[in-house]
């Protein structure tokens, strides 16, 4: 079921609830899920009755990150591109393939979703790891349960953070370095203190809290919300987010290329299991 439909879409009054539904794999994101999310966001953008969008993950965890090892991993498959005009990555090799694919399905998609002209709220419980961060960070608000935790352990692969490099803007430069150097879990309350999370509530009241905030926001005029969202995002870009992310994307691909040149693959031979086992505190991929 979840392999067939990786994303569920539901409208509750003025709120669209978009739910990642690969619970068995802790909502690891393959491209099928990425394009299903894109379709859901597009639907929410087009529906005038929808004022606010909630992004959720089914089960105990929000998202364990990009799919680097489930049976549904589909990096060799071609999809109709939505975020960029890069060529089809499946018809190219090496960096020409990898750069095109990650420009489209990672950075391009997250930026496209950040531009959705309606407020978005990430409802985060359990793990929000690496690629999961990109989904939460491209939302406007992040509301987490007290059992939520955040980590970007990809430095273990020799890679300087996930593709959507918003770390210094999400948590400040000083802590961004600790977050990346250690790759350890940061709990919801600490994430709130750092400014990455808006609110932390008990697990059992997470959904009610998110829906309550969403319904209050929905009372505001739609165009006012769209302009306000754009105002803050424009200022964040003037503060360097977009340019910084572009510059780091080059370093990210230098790391992938280095891994592929000296080792077995662009991920330094790591997969979900070795990423988990190699961690002192672990992550939930
Ligand atoms: Zn990458």
The first-level CATH class is given as: Alpha Beta
First and last CA, distance: 21 Å
Q: Using DSSP, what is the number of strands?
A: 9
**Strand order within the widest beta sheet:** 1-2-3-4-6-9
Instruction: Give the ligands present.
Output: zinc ion
Biggest sheet descriptor: 6 strands, mixed
Shape: globular
Structural class: alpha/beta
The CATH homologous superfamily corresponds to 2-enoyl-CoA Hydratase, Chain A, domain 1
Order of H and E elements? EEHEHEEHEEHHEHEHHHH
**Rg from Cα:** 18 Å
Individual helix count: 10
Percent strand equals: 5-15%
Write the layout of secondary structure elements.
Elements: E1 7-12, E2 15-20, H1 31-46, E3 52-57, H2 94-114, E4 120-124, E5 127-129, H3 131-137, E6 141-145, E7 149-151, H4 167-171, H5 173-182, E8 186-187, H6 188-194, E9 199-201, H7 206-217, H8 222-238, H9 241-262, H10 272-277
Parallel strand pairs: 2-3, 3-4, 4-6, 5-7, 6-9
Antiparallel strand pairs: 1-2, 7-8
Helix pairs in contact: 2-9
The structure holds zinc ion.
Residues 102, 163, 252, 256 line the site of zinc ion.
